[in-house]
Amino acid sequence: MADLHPARDQSGGREPAMDFEAVYQGRQIAYGADDRRSDLIPWRLDAPQPLVVELEAAGEIAGPVLECGCGLGDNALFLAGRGHEVTAFDAAPSAIERSRAKAAAAGTPVTFTVADATELRGIAVPGGFRTVVDSAMLHCLDADQRRTYLAGLRRVCAPGAKLHVLCFRGELAARLVVLADMDERSLREAFPDEWTIRRMAPRHYTTGLTRQEWQKLTPAVPGVPESDDTVTVDQHGRVLLPFWQITAELA
Ligand SMILES: C[S@@+](CC[C@H](N)C(=O)[O-])C[C@H]1O[C@@H](n2cnc3c(N)ncnc32)[C@H](O)[C@@H]1O
Questions:
Q1: Is the CB of 88 under 6 A from ligand 1?
Q2: Distance set, CA 65 to CA 107, 223, 251 (Å)
Q3: C or N: which end of the chain has fewer Cβ atoms within 10 Å?
């Protein structure tokens, strides 16, 4: 697994993947070869991801819904609050524990479960899921894991199911660890034939970081070109990252 780190160490090699369980246990995240520390969780909004809200408002979510790599559970809770039947999983047990506590406090029914996306063990509903939401998880997988995951999703989905993915665009390699290529062609090739890509659009993912926090944690990598919109902010001062919005449909 990998996520928000500077892209390369001083020797040009890749940094180790992020330990998500440690992050959710409240341990500090180490960034960069010089081991800068932070206890911020960059994707923590305490609210649903705006692009997920947009999909729901556009009528692009139909239950039963599966959320993959649900993290702190805010997207799943939002979708359940909108009346959808939701199952959500994450590989990090502490994320699921925290999500279950939130669901109980809110009285919102969501099936939160610990599972690995490359196995999907125990993930099933009668008739199959009609919508899958992946908000910033796919880019945590290397190329082989992505293929295994996307192929495995077919088993748990109903015919005609929609898969909505939000994932890094390649430009972020100037600042962050990216385990596999995030250019349009590589991503399209990761989808097995049964998934038809209906939308692949450059969009932005909202983080919980201010511009200052982002710049402190992810200094630009010398020699790696950065796009003009690598760091933009929304009206609340939250950093927006260049992401792909992909929607695929199962045959
Ligand atoms: C960047 S976070 C995004 C969390 C949440 N979806 C959001 O947008 O706020 C990525 C999440 O994917 C989870 N994850 C990474 N690899 C995974 C895998 N192989 N199986 C299940 N979850 C995984 C991590 O534990 C983490 O919670």
A1: no
A2: 18, 42, 17
A3: C
- pLDDT digit string, tens, across residues 182-191: 999 999 999 9
Question: Bigger pLDDT: 42 or 228?
Answer: 42
Measured from the Cα of 70, ligand 1's closest atom is 6
| Model pLDDT for residues 55-86, shown as the tens digit of each residue | 999 999 999 999 999 999 999 999 999 999 99
DSSP characters for 132-186?
Answer: EEEES-GGGS-HHHHHHHHHHHHHHEEEEEEEEEEEE-GGGGGTS--SS--SHHH
Q: Is the predicted pLDDT of residue 233 greater than 60, yes or no?
A: yes
pLDDT of residue 225: 62
Distance, CA of 87 to CA of 24 (rounded, Å): 20
Distance CA 173, CA 176 (A): 5
pTM of the model: 0.92
Can you tell me the distance from the alpha carbon of 6 to that of 238, in angstroms, rounded to the nearest whole number?
Answer: 19
CB atoms near residue 37 (< 10 Å): 10
Q: How far is the CA of 132 from the centre of ligand 1 (A)?
A: 14
Q: Is the CB of 168 under 6 A from ligand 1?
A: no
Q: CA-based angle 20:63:93, to the nearest 5?
A: 20
- Domain boundaries of the chain, sorted by first residue: 41-209+224-250
The best mutation among 20, 133, 150 to test binding of ligand 1, ranked by most ligand atoms within 8 Å of the C-beta, falls on 20
Q: How far is the CA of 69 from the centre of ligand 1 (A)?
A: 4
Instruction: Please tell me if the CB atom of residue 4 comes closer than 6 angstroms to any atom of ligand 1.
Output: no
